[in-house]
Amino acid sequence: xxxxxGRQPGxxxxxxxxxxxxxxxxxxxxxxxxxxxxxRGRGDWKTKDAWRALRILSEFVEGFDTLADLPPAVSVFGxxxxxxxxxxxxxxGELGAALARAGYAVITGGGPGVMEAANRGASEAGGxxxxxxxxxxxxxxLNDWVDLAIDFRYFFARKTxxxxxxxAFVVLPGGFGTMDELFEALTLVQTGKVTRFPxxxxxxxxxxxxxxWLRDTMAAEGKIGPVDLELICLTDDVDAAVRHIVEAEAxxxxxxxxxxxxxxxxxxxxxxxxxDSAATGAGGSGPAGPAGPGAGRKG
Length: 299
Description:
By secondary structure, the chain is of the alpha/beta class.
């Protein structure tokens, strides 16, 4: 699987900043996220942060509008530095294809490495391949296998889209960014911010040390509960990963249908009880007969 991000050798670097493309001397030395979070520039907050707020809002609107019609999707994370022939890239390619065959769109960060492999697998299998890019100092560019792409300035807007439009996360070997997405997903599930959101780790050898630490240190010291460890599905089997996602979605659908049927039955019971009460009241308080002197006498 070749690694290509759409850039020709020797071509000048460029940076995408929302709808804007910058090249050569126009490329700034900092990113929008960095400028937003840098507290040393407080003097310009009143003049610049209001405009930043509108820009942030526009990113959410653009993301919501673009992704609202996606089919069921799975977000796949992993290192941009992985070589095309690495085990994780081969696994990501197989995973992308399997998810596409199961009817899922594949969402990645749109970069090279594992992300490109997953996008390529999905695209070649006839699925929809989505890339959510981000403005970085070391611009990577969107890989050539992305069918639908959005470039973001702000990490938090982009991260919202990864969760909002996905039914599951699959996390392959990666670095800080991958770990960030993994633990954000686990936190959202643990705190009930998202419901029945499968988190699958692929690459047992890579993740084993982390899982041992979570169990032997974090859980052992009571920082998380034993049930929290069950939020993670670890496997090297692509079919098992997809099956876990499909089964979780089916279980959630069945649960939601059960809740709906229970609500309908409860509403029907309440309506019947109200009707019975009205009928009983009407029968016990009908019109009284004539009263007063001579009542009941024949003329």
